[in-house]
Amino acid sequence: MASIFMLILSFLCSQGLYSSSVAATSTIRVGDQLNSTTNLVSENGNFTLGFFTVGRPNSQNSSYFGVWYTNDDRQRKVWVANPNSPITSSFGVLAIDSNGTLEITSEGSSIMILHDQNGTVNATATLEDSGNFVLMDAADRRTLWQSFDHPTNTLLAGMKLGYNLTSGQNWTLTSWLNDYVPAAGAFNLSLESIGDSAQLVMHRRGEPYWTSGPWNNGNFEFTVTLNDTSNPYQYNLHYVSNGDGKYFTFDATDAKISMMELTSKGEILDGANSRFVSPADFCYGYQADNGCVKTQLPGCRSQKDSFQQLSANFPVTTSSYETIQSQV
Fold this sequence. Notes:
By secondary structure, this protein is mainly beta. Helices cover 6% and strands 38% of the residues. One of its GO terms (cellular component) is plasma membrane.
């Protein structure tokens, strides 16, 4: 009897009917759906894509759709599709319709259209091992849309920071509002021309805040730690300039988790070991060292100005919490 049971068990396992979970896939097709219980995992398991929630004190959780390193203990999100359009229920769905439109919906309502395709296309969407989520025409393998063209707060290896004059594409990073809210925060990072070269420029609420210094001999003046040869996760920086435009990118040597993250505090962190690659201290506007930009004080101020200290308390609400943590 035992031998018969083992024979049946062996048959079920061989047919894949005795599995407690569905094998991970990296691709969805027309008619497929991703929801809060299903994810895509890149072919070699580097990245995971799906819905996630972020908790905020004294508030309900909001749901977002994004990408993260599968083996990152901190589960940092390296791309978010809907940072400014949170899903307030647990019924988010990502799907491709018969026209090739890639859309996030919730309870029948549209949250965000990632790509609106005109005409019938046999489209597939794949999470690649680079972390890029790519929608393409299955017939000719033509890329219709990709997440690397829509960065949020993180630059991954192979992503671009800069601009393309031909297509009009502009690649920039925007910080989160705070650790809990992916909505646009105070800081923005872009690549800007300076003479015959270029530099990274960080803006704080639209005003220049920090610069990397011009690109020279394979590095920026104030990001030297990225190319530190003593670092086992050495980053290789690349600056490309041609008739189409200019952009900065990087690749990493043997780095399990490589990234450049623009934080809500205006820091640029190396994801491998969270080293600072921009000034560790806040740029207050009165100093011009390590790339900090010295700001012009308003002409209405004088040395005779005085200030009165006032004290107050915000009520404990979601809006007040977000304001306190938003690095205003």
